[in-house]
Amino acid sequence: MSEQILRLPAEKLFQAEIDALIAAEKNPVPTGWKMSPQSVKTYICGGKVGKTVITPKYIGHERLVEIAISTLVTDRALLLIGEPGTAKSWLSEHLTAAINGDSTKVIQGTAGTTEEQIKYSWNYAMLIAQGPSQEAMLKSPVFQAMETGTIARVEEISRCASEVQDALISILSEKRISVPELSAEVAAKKGFSVIATANTRDKGVNEMSAALKRRFNIVVLPAPANLDSEMEIVKTRVTQLSENLDLNAKQPADDVIEKVCTIFRELRSGETLDRKQKVKGTSGVLSTAEAISLLCNSMALAGSFGNGSITNEDLAAALQGAVIKDEDKDSVAWKEYLENVMKKRGSEWLGLYKACKELG
Q1: Which residues contact 71 (CB under 8 A, 6 or more apart)?
Q2: CA of 140: how far to CAs of 97, 252, 293, in Å?
């Protein structure tokens, strides 16, 4: 059955690792948790338990992971902030998978998210027929997490309207939800918390109030510090993603990953990696997550219409789609990058340069 599911939740995908960590547990386990904070860190950052190798889920500052985990041991909620593609949602999912064995209590924040999705709503057919009752109530992921003493996730909280965000203030402060229709109040069990994520590119869309921010411990996730760390993240995630997709292609070679990460980092920063030349930026984010998606797309092209190995033509097609979001601005910046940077990099880059030019 799992073979037919496009994307398994983290606790299913890495169930063997979670089971091994739980079986080998020797440290105190907080109420409501499946494993100790130390084991959660091992699950996130990688390591070995017995004969089981724990693959790293987050490659970055381990101290930030420790701060995030220790926050969830307290009664404070956790807010992960960063640029797009800095693994906020990925880290949020894996934290809940390791801590509760369930990462599926999720609210996806959008402009259309309502207060009912944060608290509760009703099955209106049952409500009309029988009146307010427990059976007629539709509990939100936050409500379910409070009842079970587990963690709920709120993705892209800054995209929610201010009144929806403020619905969380009383929940995070009082740790209870009032249900006037039933003359009842539901108190959170020990272990309840919330992990929210916010995108710095969305700052100002629906700015979080100071009152709400005070209810969170904020951890800022930075972009990969250097080319090598970004390449490692991209390589790991492309391997994991492609295993669950029928791409019929070989994993991208290191030099292919290096070229994509180099292009993205230079267009992102506005200068070449050696800092000797300025580069015109583009309107897109060109995040690590987009680099991963680009390489998977290139593998799909190679597997479907090539010999299974990513060619310069496959890479060029994916690059053009990723870089040029605004036809007027981005196409000019991309052409300048091709002529002023890529063309001058020698024979190793010449094939990709020609493939990109042909598409242009």
Answers
A1: 77, 78, 217, 219
A2: 19, 41, 31
Give per-residue pLDDT as tens, 9-54: 999 999 999 999 999 999 999 999 999 999 999 999 999 999 999 9
217 in the same domain as 269: no
Question: Model pTM?
Answer: 0.89
Q: Domain check: are 211 and 246 in the same one?
A: no
User: Where do the H-state alpha helices sit in the chain?
Assistant: 10-13, 15-23, 37-45, 62-73, 88-100, 115-118, 124-130, 141-148, 162-174, 210-213, 227-243, 254-269, 288-305, 312-323, 327-340, 347-359
* Tokens representing residue 83 in the block: 């640029």
Tell me the two tokens of residue 341.
């940077």
Each residue of 107-158: pLDDT tens digit? 999 989 999 999 999 999 999 999 999 999 999 999 999 999 999 999 999 9
Are the beta carbons of 221 and 98 closer than 8 angstroms? Answer: no
Do both 209 and 272 map to the same domain? no
- Would you say 29 and 35 are in contact if contact means Cβ atoms under 8 Å apart? yes
